[in-house]
């Protein structure tokens, strides 16, 4: 007779409740506005438990801000379209999950959030760009330039809400950004 999985331990359930409440509060209030007390209330626990499990607001934020960019396999696209495909992917990720937006907002004023954002882009975008680059010596600079475009666009569209950027359709945004990202991925590097 197959055994059923063991019931979740109370500590696992509590951790999950804290993370869910933290993501909600950080998304709604930003890093600075979210409080341990509000997060604890959202999880239905005492604030002391939040500190017991995570130690600090910064550590809780880092745990709550786990984000997988789910980067696409760009080898399935014609090489001359990988910039547009990557931009399209980022637009979809920005629109479907506000965790990265919370990180972007918080990263403007909080060192831990900025470090987390750098870690996400360095750990996920840099390897993708390196795999596409014919010149490994320029891969880090190329990844940084790609990040500058997608993060800058997200800041203008979703955080600052600049009217001409907000008004763009997805196709228009891809049309503007795709060629620039394409150049960063596959074009000739600046000779320095």
Defining key terms:
71% helix, mainly alpha, 192 residues
Describe what this molecule looks like in 3D.
71% of the residues lie in helices and 0% in strands. The chain is mostly helical. The protein has two domains: 10-64, Orthogonal Bundle (Arc Repressor Mutant, subunit A), CATH 1.10.10; 74-186, no CATH class. Helix 1 (10-33) packs across helix 6 (99-107) and helix 8 (139-159) runs antiparallel to helix 10 (170-186). The N and C termini lie far apart (68 Å).
Principal-axes geometry comes out as elongated
Radius of gyration: 20 Å
Mean pLDDT: 89
Extract low-pLDDT stretches: none
Helix content: over 70%
What count of domains describes the coordinates?
Answer: 2
- SS summary, helix count: 10
The N- to C-terminal Cα distance equals 68 Å
Question: Structural class of the helix and strand makeup?
Answer: mainly alpha
Strand content: under 5%
Q: Which series of helices and strands comes N to C?
A: HHHHHHHHHH
Question: How many DSSP-defined strands?
Answer: 0
The major β-sheet equals:
none
How are the SSEs placed, and which strands pair?
Layout: H1 10-33, H2 36-43, H3 47-54, H4 57-64, H5 82-96, H6 99-107, H7 111-132, H8 139-159, H9 163-167, H10 170-186
Helix pairs in contact: 1-2, 1-4, 1-6, 2-3, 5-10, 6-7, 7-8, 8-10
């Amino acid at each position: 007779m197959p055994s059923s999985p063991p019931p979740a331990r109370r500590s696992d359930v509590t951790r999950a409740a804290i993370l869910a409440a933290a993501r909600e509060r950080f998304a709604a209030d930003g890093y600075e506005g979210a409080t341990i007390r509000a997060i604890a209330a959202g999880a239905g626990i005492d604030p002391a438990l939040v500190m017991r499990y995570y130690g600090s607001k910064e550590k809780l934020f880092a745990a709550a801000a786990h984000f997988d960019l789910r980067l696409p396999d760009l080898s399935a696209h014609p090489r001359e379209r990988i910039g547009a495909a990557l931009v399209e992917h980022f637009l979809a990720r920005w629109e479907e999950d506000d965790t990265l937006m919370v990180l972007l907002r918080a990263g403007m004023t909080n060192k831990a959030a900025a470090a987390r954002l750098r870690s996400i882009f360095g750990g996920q975008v840099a390897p993708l760009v390196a795999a596409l680059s014919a010149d490994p010596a320029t891969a880090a600079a190329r990844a940084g330039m790609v990040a500058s475009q997608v993060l800058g666009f997200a800041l203008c569209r979703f955080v600052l809400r600049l009217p001409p950027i907000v008004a763009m359709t997805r196709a228009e945004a891809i049309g503007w950004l795709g060629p620039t990202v394409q150049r960063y991925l596959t074009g000739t590097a600046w000779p320095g």
